[in-house]
Amino acid sequence: MAPKMEGIAPNKAVFKFVGIFTEMDGELQYEYHVVKSAVDIAVKKTQTTYPALKFEIASYNISPTSIDTHAVVLAAQKHCNQQVSCFIGPSASPELEPVAKMAASWKTPICTAGGMDVTFLDKILFSTLLRNGIVLSRLVHFIMIYFHVFDWHRIAVLYDDTDRWGALIHDSMESFLKEVDHEVRTYFQSFSSQSKLQTNFTRLLWDLDKSARIFIIIGTGETVREILLAAYDLGMGNGEYAFLSVELFNNKKAFGEFTWYKKDDPRNNEARKMYESLLLVTVRVPTGEKYTQFVQEVIETSKKEFNKPVVESQVNVIVAGFHDCVLMYANALNKTLEEGGDPSDGYTLIRKMWNNTFKDGNNNYR
To answer: Per-block average pLDDT, block size 10, for the chain (366 residues)?
Structure first.
């Protein structure tokens, strides 16, 4: 139900979104033309749902290496030059952290499908931030519950320290274990996929075998396969060992291909046997009819506006999360106005979005 808003409706109050996005940001992978199409679709939906209000969005494809288009500079410029109702993005932690801190000081809501880092659990420092996406603390908590169910207490973690995603997983697990879970003993071992010297995974596994029988492997699909084959060579396919890895979502460019099969590889049978010992954790992707319609709408919009072809896998959960950020803000804004609240008080408004569940076409928003 849209608010009455007798004093506002005649002049169509304008609420402005500023979208700040970074393609292939090192943490979460998406293409700018895809995510822009998704948020544009969301703005049109909010305009239809709340006709007494007027929404606008300006989206930007930023570069973390250029000071002129850096997220911090852009956010500050837009805050000074126009009244920003809500920031959408950025997603990568290095860009999001300073922008979210500034947004808190401005009392401006900021919603993102990123911000996976445990740093953003601080709701005092990031008092106007909503993360509507993959949160590593939840992922790590799920993994730890799984370990307790099977009574596993000695875990080895192999992670790629040259990959931002691998480093984040390491930091989240280490933080969680220190502060929450004191029953699981974890041994961390880093490796470098970018090193000129090939990593000796057989030696790493041999050393860790002295301390653990459960191995978490954080790396690309190709790296996971390589490590599992090294484990096979050490006789770890005998049922006494278990392996776990994480594929956030299906994106070969970002995470590689998680499969035992490799064309013309004589070790396919050995890799297949080792994959029987692998638990692959991934994010659940909605499968309903409305989500399918949303994916097709993004594909059509992107083709029309950017003349770029889009395949279904490019419309991933991160893209959907940004789309949902717009809808969630509009819903909270509507409630605020109905209650006679101040729409410019982002501190209060964002709390109507925290720990709140309501349904729309794509998903349950929390």
So the answer is: 41 86 75 94 94 93 70 93 92 92 97 90 94 84 84 89 79 73 79 78 94 92 95 94 88 83 95 94 83 94 90 89 95 93 93 73 46
* H or E stretch at 94: helix 93-106
Please name the amino acid found at residue 80: C
**Closest among 21, 44, 66, 53 to 332, alpha carbons compared:** 53
pTM: 0.86
Which strand ranges, in their side-by-side order, compose the sheet holding 185-191? Answer: 185-191, 154-160, 214-218, 242-246, 278-281
What beta strand segments (E) does the chain contain?
14-21, 54-61, 86-88, 110-112, 129-131, 154-160, 185-191, 214-218, 242-246, 278-281, 358-359, 364-365
Contact 310, 303 (CB under 8 A): yes
User: Which residue, chain included where needed, has tokens 């596994």?
Assistant: 205
Taking each helix axis from N to C end, the angle separating 317-338 and 289-306, rounded to the nearest 10 degrees, works out to 100
